[in-house]
Amino acid sequence: MLREEMQEVFIVAGNTHQEVERELRSARKKMHPASSDEPPMRKSSILGKKTEVVEDEAVEGEYGMVINGHSLAYALQEGLQLEFLRAACMCQAVICCRVTPLQKAQVVELVKKHKRAVTLAIGDGANDVSMIKAAHIGVGISGQEGMQAVLSSDYSFAQFRYLQRLLLVHGRWSYLRMCKFLRYFFYKNFTFTFVHFWYGFFCGFSAQTVYDEWFITLYNLVYTALPVLGLALFDQDVDHRWSFQYPQLYTPGQLNLYFSKRAFLRCVLHSGYSSLVLFFIPYASMHDTVRDDGKDIADYQSFALLAQTCLLVAVNMQLGLDTHYWTAVNQFFLWGSMSVYFAVTFTMYSNGMYLIFTSSFPFIGVARNSLNQPNVWLTILLTSILCVLPVLAYRFLYMQLRPTINDKVRHKVRQDKTPPTAAPRRFQPRRISTRRSGYAFSHSRGYGDLVTSGKFLLRPVRSRPPLFSRSQPSGSPVAEDSPQIFRTITEEPSA
Amino acid sequence: MMASSYNAKEEDGHHSGASGPCGAAVKSKKPDNTAFKQQRLPAWQPILTAGTVLPAFFVIGLIFIPIGIGLYVTSNNIKEFEIDYTGIDMSSPCFNCSQNFSWNSTRPCKCSLPFSLDQPFESNVFMYYGLSNFYQNHRRYVKSRDDSQLNGDTFSLTHPSKECEPYRTGSDNKPIAPCGAIANSMFNDTLELYYVDPNGTRTQIELAKKGIAWWTDKHVKFRNPGSNNSNLTASFKGTTKPVNWNKPVYELDSEAENNGFINEDFIVWMRTAALPTFRKLYRIIQRKNSMTPTLPRGNYTLEVTYNYPVRSFEGRKRVILSTISWMGGKNPFLGIAYITVGSVCFFLGVVLLIIHHKYGNRSNNSDIPN
Question: Is A21 contained in some domain?
Fold first, then answer.
């Protein structure tokens, strides 16, 4: 965590409030000489409420900080909190040593409250439980210290090094899949709905649906359910080995690029455009038209069939553009859904179904009579191409002019063709004997006083008599004889 | 604490097969190392490169433009003639009929419109009546029908569905057959076509009224009630005609094959249109032989029995005579759309090629910033 490249590592080990404050302030001034004494608060944008979020401050160079439990007790008090937060956030790494479990949780909560960040806490022992529960994401390590951390965590695994995989591979893929799924789901449903808005102008605003009622029922349930599920389960932008190779791929997730308000607006505009194409092209091509044997094709039922087929083909082509990782399952879901659509349509519009359930299936004969017209298929082809081509052009253009980190890595993957070999794992020498880290006793005075001082409790505590006093003659002989230097903590009434 | 059961072999977190304190084999918690569960399924990973996108644009452009030209040329070769006979202008022959309309008039109003065809119409000529500003796609209108009744179900004949309200029961509470607003507003103008010779003699052009509805409609969807079609009057006993009709449904035609619910004009009307401007097939003028054109060049007269009022909702009525091709009636839109999209696609391909040439190496640079 502390590296050679760090310019300086600040040690905060003050005994009193003023000392700690001085140390923190000097650290901050050294890192960012021009920083003001007032913490830079984020401008509030929600209803004029004052926010408590502290802005990030950029520094030149890398710094580290080490702070121990005593000083942390002072640093987490009301007046010094923000000072500590600012100084700590300017560093690349902060080590808090000899802290109590509650202090661990308090540090996490401090960051959560005053920074727009997602916090992750990882620990392996029972003393990490409060920290794990306080953070947004809690990771527990199972094994040596027992299962307490695991039981209270969101994710758990057996070794610390698996954290890299959790973040860079699984976390990243999860974010990507979730955002793609959401964007596509909104797109297909907005497109489906906006078409009715345009039809309103031509049906006297009587809320007549463009599509068959059965299509509306089965659209989200059957026809477009499995392909998008396949996208959300299996999609990967790059391999797991490449994900390790390029940790920079993680930044889009940190910046929330894939599903921000702007991305949602883009999705809505795209749906608007698609719905215009999906209504007006069939409208114009069916306007005052007839079949090739002169009979009717511009009737409501044939128009509905045409519109719904165009919609389904267009949204499935869009899904095809969105999917970056075509497994056999994805292929099966996509082509399977299209064939199920045609199978169900022909079944529902057949003679048999009409004769059994007359009022439920009034669309009899429509599929046979309109899907054998070349006119209809040419319209379907035109609408789907017109829906998909702008997206293709837009994405290609962006890739040429402003490639994202994702685009670059994917191009490199394609060029190299061979996956990178995993970095050889540095094998640590195996520990031969068991090692325990919990002790039932201590032969030095330790920090019991710190714990019982109540300095950092959230609720003000009634003052208690000190547990250990130096004047007791029957004090622990070990404490008297010990050559170690230890601190005394004088009891102060809590603020 | 669990320190006592700790085993050095469990260093790597592998609990596979490690013996527990009692020596029995512990079930492994390690997930299967299959391709499916470890997300290593073999997959095709396409990527948008210039080598795939640009040819796609050019190919689409090159395919669409000829298709568009073909469609446009075909559409232009279709001959179509349209004549509006609503009678808005004072100079129109049908002006009097449109003004003096009333539902109860027993004497039908007739008007005749002369027109001339510049080009002969070959092969089968289809005669349509067209309506404008008529919202057959209004939601309440579309559901105002009873498909079971129209399919010949005897129970539904005398108990029409509630969707048909307020056209469900007629005078003295008898059920209406066919019920609903769609049936009630059936188009009932009669149109006749006469060819006027250069020397003035009028010959009536034969209009075929069979084969204008979909086969599935005529033979499956619409059936007359009762077992045999011979005595329709008896089959429809207990029902009354729709409010705005002149004669009941079993008197629509003298032929039994075209009477009752399976009357083809009725079936064509019941197939509601999707848009407020539509045309419906009225009659077919069969071609005589391949030598003579079906409708030669010259003067014609259209005789209209004006029964259908459209002035109240500012609608328009028209007659359309049209030939047919493999793409249907005359509709230049699809041809023009294909040509436009094809050329835009081609142009876009050229633009993207230029952009790729100038800036395209940005994504190929292996400079991936830290």
Answer: yes
Note whether A51 contacts B: Cβ–Cβ < 8 A.
no
> Considering only CB atoms, which chain A residues are within 8 Å of B50?
396, 400
Distance CA(A68)–CA(A73), nearest Å, equals: 9
The residue of chain B with its CA nearest to that of A359 is B147
Give yes or no for B158 touching A (CB within 8 A): no
Among the partner residues A289, A326, A415, nearest to B44 by beta-carbon distance: A326
Domain boundary among A414, A442, A476: A414
ipTM: 0.90
Residue B217 to residue A365, Cβ atoms within 8 A:
yes
Mean pLDDT throughout A12-33? 89
Host H or E run for residue A64? strand A63-68
71-90 of B, contacting A, C-beta below 8 A: 71
Kindly report, residue by residue over B246-258, the tens digit of the pLDDT.
889 999 988 888 9
pLDDT at A131: 94
From chain B, the residues in CB contact with A240 under 8 A are 39
Candidates B3, B67, B212; nearest CB to A434: B3
Name every chain A residue with its beta carbon within 8 A of the beta carbon of B270: none
Which chain A residues contact residue B64 at CB under 8 A? Answer: 385
Is there a single domain that holds both residue A222 and residue A106? no
Domain that holds residue A86: 8-117
Greater confidence (A154 vs B231) lies with A154
| pLDDT band of B2, cuts 50, 70, 90 | very low
Q: Phi and psi (nearest 5°) for A79?
A: -70, -30
Residue ranges of the alpha helices (H) in A287-373?
A: 300-322, 328-348, 351-356, 366-370
Which of A414, A441, A471 is the C-terminal boundary of a domain?
A414
CB contact under 8 A, A412 and B214: no
pTM across the whole model: 0.85
Q: Lowest-pLDDT range, A81-85, A317-321, A416-420, A432-436?
A: A432-436
When divided into structural domains, chain A yields a total of 2
Q: Which of A365, A405, A433 sits opposite B216 (nearest CB)?
A: A365
Q: So what's the pLDDT on residue B93?
A: 86
Give the pLDDT of residue B17. 41
- Number of Cβ pairs < 8 A linking chain A and chain B: 252
List the single best residue of B41, B80, B357, B359 to mutate versus A (max A Cβ within 10 A). Answer: B41
Q: Residues A418, A426: contact at Cβ < 8 Å?
A: no
| pLDDT reported for residue B31 | 82
Residues A246-296: tens digit of each pLDDT: 999 999 988 899 999 999 999 999 999 999 999 999 999 999 899 998 998
Question: C-alpha distances in angstroms, B304 versus B80, B111, B194?
Answer: 19, 5, 11
Left, alpha or beta for A204 (phi > 0: left; psi -120 to 50: alpha)? left
On whether both A231 and A373 belong to a single domain, the answer is yes
